[in-house]
Each structure stands twice: as structure tokens, then as C-alpha cells.
Amino acid sequence: MSTVYQHMTEAVTRYRERPFLHIPAVAAAYHDGDIDLSYEQLGSKVELLKECYRQAGYGQGHRIALLLENRQDFFLHWFALNGLGASVVPINGDMQTDEIAYLLEDSEACLGIALASRCAQLTTAASRFNSNFPVLDCNRLESLSGAATQALSQFGSASTECALLYTSGSTGKPKGCILSNEYFTEFGAWYCRSKGIIQLEPGRERLLTPLPLVHMNAMAVSTMGMLMSGGCIIQLDRFSPSSWWQSVAESRATMVHYLGVLPAILLQLEPSSYEKNLQVKFGFGAGVNPLHHQNFEQRFGFPLVESWAMSESGSGGCITANQEPRHVGSCCFGQLPENVEIKLIDEAGNEVPTGEPGELLVRAKGDKPRRGFFSGYYKNPSATAEAWQGGYLNTGDVVRQSDDGSLHFVDRRKNVIRRSGENISALEVEAAMSQQQVVEQLAVCAVPDEIRGDEVMALIVLPPGLSASATTATDIVNQARQSLSYYKVPAYIAFVSALPMTASNKPQRGEIKKLAAKLLARGECIDLCHLKKGSKR
Prior knowledge:
The chain is α/β, with parallel strands linked by helices. The protein has helices at residues 4-14, 39-55, 72-82, 97-107, 119-127, 181-193, 216-227, 241-250, 261-267, 290-300, 381-387, 426-433, 470-480, 509-521, and strands at 19-23, 35-38, 63-67, 87-90, 111-114, 135-137, 161-166, 176-180, 206-209, 232-235, 255-259, 282-286, 304-308, 319-320, 332-335, 340-345, 358-364, 376-377, 393-401, 406-412, 416-419, 422-425, 441-449, 453-461, 492-495, 526-527. The chain has a domain at 420-531: ANL, C-terminal domain (GMP Synthetase, Chain A, domain 3), CATH 3.30.300.30. An 8-stranded mixed sheet has the order 2-1-10-9-11-12-13-14, sandwiched between helices. The termini are far apart.
């Protein structure tokens, strides 16, 4: 079996009566009750859609844009199109029209499939570059017309493109990552054979995730892991703190997937009766605030297993803290697995000694160093070659390796602030300052300094009713000094109404840095250099 569709048909045969998908009513504002789909029902619905697309001539060589949110429709259309060798371009529903237009044009999608409520937006986006771009309601395929170009075939293989996923574009226009069937099936196999804390029990797991199906975690890790082990996906619309533990408890989830911000929010909630009635064995994700990690596990009673991967690396470079020691609270994401090879290098390209931070370079061990990785950036061979410079995937992530071989995330290389010879992680400063109740949201970045090269600046969103004053800024920095070295605390603070964010709700680091420099140049920030010990200005 070499395609996603083939694994789906195998799962339908093997786990026919088992549940494939559960969407709790509390998490589905668009539906009156729970949504449940068995493997048998999944197979029947997919085959009907596949036949509609087949008759219209869609297949290999065609890309179809999907604006279907975190609903069952996404799975059905994706699997049906994959069965014909066609690729999908998932569209984030939180994107603005111009952002969607860019993805449609850049991907060269030939058809858009959307929820009825989103068809108008997709049509408007497409009209920016092609007034004849076809957009259909996902439940009205009877009006599907023939494909504009002839399909190469109506079959796929391991190397056939399965999806074109776009990076977040935090520092520029998003790049399309070409992901093959092998990329997805390898991730499913990786999850199924994982041992230790995250070992799956075939036919028994119920995985709850609020993560968007337009990203590799939900699309490749969650979906393929459950599909290939006969598990059930509990797919939420999005993360909702007020109903989270109710959804987890009532759905009988045995595992949850998370992003770093979720534990921080959940720890702020008042204790709930639902959190006392959990069946969760583990949480799987990345980026938990190290100051929250142990507190979360002690309160809620299950481990948060940190993992490292990116859209480009897939399972081929995935590293996970699924075995002890996990070094909770140290940004540890595990020890090197047998199938992965790495280097940690400084800015000059030299390997760094143990304990020193360096950029992570990663590849699969053996004669296929790109096995399980992305196939390349679409229409951007120079960026692909740059990413693979030196025969390793150059990740841009700064990591250190401790004496026992454990790997610890430091920051993105572009987020490291170089102040007077000291490397400061913006992520570390943000993690410390986010503990303060007066900080609703923040981003830390470098700004130019004539003497020190870089200086630390924080853009902060305050809770409603709090004064954006020099006194407030001083209090924030003084409290930060209790947990950070003097040189790491912000020298400048700017209070803003909102931070530049990507459609996937990640900080737009490039835009944040531009905004910080602009506010500093205009004097629209609070100068706190005098609070930094040893600072002579």
C-alpha cells in the first residue's frame, strides 16, 4: 500500500464497525448533535465522492483547493481525491481574502471545494486573478463540470503529490511544501511503531485534537496515525478553553494533541469536575512553556510529550521525548532515534561542542537521506536547494545537546538576539514574561543598538483597563528581572493593541521586528535601559 487512499480502504476492511471520526456537539456549533462516522460509513461516503470526481476527469496532475474547516467533509474529499491521484491544497478558514488569493494563484489549483458558507469568499479570492475559477459547495458535486486539463492518470503512487501545504509565512510569503503520499504514510507508520509513552494500541485509541486540518500535525500525524492503527479521531472545531475538559472527558479521549499555548491557558482555568474524570494517557505536541510543563502534569495527571518536527522534515527527521528522561521543564524534545542523523552548527558552519547551542541540521540515516521529508518547495528550486545545503535539512532551529544526548530547543535562529556577545532567546524571554498577569500577549525581538549590536524589545498587549504607562512598563521589567539575567530583560517596551499574527495564529516574526524598529525610531516606546544592570548609556 503506497497511498493514503489505499491505507483508508485497508482500514475500512479491517476496522469496519469501529469509529473513525467523532465530533462532539459541544465542539460543533454548525450541528445539533454529535457527529459519528464508522470506518464502513467513511468508505461508502468516500467512494461516492470519488466517483463524482472520476466522472468529471479529475486525477493526477490536478490540485483542488479545500476550504472545509475541521469538519468531516475535509476527510471525505481529501481521501476521494487521493484515490484518483489528485492533490489537495488545504485553505485556512482564518485567512483573509488576499491571503487565500495568493495560495490559489501560487498553487495553480484548478478547482475550489468549500463549505456553503465559504463559497463566496473563495470565489472572491479567486476573482483577484481568475474570474473563471470554479468553486463548488462540498455537498453539491452534481454540478461538477469536467476538469480544465486532462489528468495524467487516475491512480497515485508513493511518490505522487498528496498535498501542497503552505508554511506559515512568518517572515515572508508562504512557500508551498510538496508532500507526497510517502510523506503521509511514513508519518502514520512512525506513529504506529512508536514505543514508550506514546505507544498506540491498535483499534483502541481515541485521539482528540483541536489543531487545524490545514497543518501537518492534524493532517499527517493525527489522521494517519489513527487511520493506520484503527483509532478514532476526535476532531474539534478549534480550541475552546471553556468546553475543553468536557470534550476530553465525554469523548473518552485516550490521547490529546496540543500546541504550546494550550497548557498555559488550561492552567489558568478554575478546577472542573470534568478534569477529574479523564482517560488520557498522554498529550503529544510541541512548545509547552517550560515553566508550565511540570505544573500541568501534576494537576491533570498525564504527561505532555514534546516532539520536534516541521512541515519540511515530516517523520524523516522527527525527534520525540517518548522515553525517560524527558527533562521536564527544559524544552527537551528527546534523544536521537536510530533512524535520524543530525549536526548542530554555529553561524560559520562549524559543529558546536556538547552543551553549546547550534542550528539543527537533520536527515534520515542511510542511503535515502530524504525519506519521509517533503519533496521540495513548489516552483522554488533555489529555496529547496538552500534548505538542503550540505546534504542535511537546514532547519533554522537553534538546539543544544546535553551530556546524556537529550536535545533541547532554544529558539528559531532568526529569533536569537545577539547583545554584546550574548545570545538571548526571544522565546525564553517571552516564556518568563508571559507568567505576569498584566501581560495578555507579547512578542520579544531584537532592535538595533549602536553599542551592543542588538537590544531587547518587547511588544505587549495589556488586558482591558490597564494603563499603558511608564509605571506599568517598569513594573513588568522589574518582575522579569526576578527570573531573567539583567541583559535578557527588555530595554524597550511598546504597548500595542494587537500583534501581527499569521492566519494560523502564530506571531509574524518578520512583521513584529519591522514594527518594533519603527516604534523605536519614532520614539513610541518606553525606554527602560536604566533598569538593566551594567548598562552604561
